[in-house]
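User: Teach me something about this protein's shape.
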Amino acid sequence: MGTRTLPNLRSPLSSPTPPASSPLRNHRWRISPFPSSTRPSRPVRPIECAVRFRPCIDIHKGKVKQIVGSTLRDSTDDASLITNFESDKSPAEFASLYKQDGLTGGHVIMLGADAASQSAARQALRAYPGGLQVGGGINWENAMSYLEEGASHVIVTSYVFSDGQMDLERLKHLVHMIGKQRLILDLSCRKKVTYESYIWNIILNGKYAIVTDRWQKFSDMFLDEQTLEFLATYADEFLVHGVDVEGKG
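Assistant: First, the predicted structure itself:
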């Protein structure tokens, strides 16, 4: 189980957040980086605070867990698995809590293809219809069934990659079947060192490549502005984990 938030862009010069009883509590603040006495005469682009809390339910063998992402493996041997947290509550119980608190846009991730995890994920979706996304082993054969169980979106990675390359035909087929508005692409990434030789100099470049198959396999697609612009035509949202540090904070 984990939480993911956008960075807090709050300026140290901004006014404090109003108390809960204030009518300004839900106002969207536009923050200027300058106090009124020192503002320049030319217009300044304001900074907008846009922090949204999204809950997450990670499921491993039917249980809610928070795992160090880089220790996940395809094998059934969990000897190398590092678990930070395991809850006694079921995924459905967490989903009910999120529904009660009005938290939307969260996701359920199955960290394995076992039947217990699939069953637990479906129970969570039924507990909060339309309030949770679901990912982990999603493909064209099961995507619609998870949507019918109550998922707002399905999250896909490995299915749309083949031998490290984006399989555009699979992606287009999935979009045609369920619609772009219900598809999220998981672009979780790891730093991949590449070598570039210029005569006598060897330069090591660390770029972030999208990883698949429980974050074990590097693809040939790097996470950059061009990639995001291209894939935005096929998905409603992106989900990005920094795998090298996932679960280590």
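Now, about its shape. The helical segments are 91-100, 115-127, 143-149, 168-178, 225-231. The chain is about 20% helix and 30% strand. If you'd like, I can walk through any region in more detail.
User: That's plenty for now, thanks!
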